[in-house]
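Record type: monomer structure entry
Structure origin: computed from sequence
Chain ID: A
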Amino acid sequence: MTDRDTFLKEFRGETLGTVSAQSSADELFQNQTIRPVLKLQNDLFIAAFINYVNKNKADFYSYTVEKKLQTIENSIQKDIKFRNSLKGMVIALFTVEEYNTYIQNSSSLNKRMMNLLTERLKSQVQLFEKVDVKS
């Protein structure tokens, strides 16, 4: 294993979620790779979403909670450039072996990845209040 791969696995931490003998390959990948990356990158995803709404949804901060939740979901589902940016933030922390696994079934894994990320952002909707983002 290369130094980069070793570093990434140690840096990301342990498997999150349940892994059993009955787990599918996609479920294993989700819990061993995607979830730890999402957890590690959480602050970056929040900053990216705040930047996204500041640039594209000027009235976001006046929305009801329900409309904010819908906006989070729609932004990730329908804005291809934003979704691809978020995917890049996840894929960049894959090992080469994980990337090779990912490309074998990227469509299904992308769906899992974006669903998990959407739920993660929605569960933190209270963080999306009008604030000044500092560099």
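Annotation 1: The mean pLDDT is 89.
Annotation 2: Residues 79 and 101 are 26 Å apart (CA to CA).
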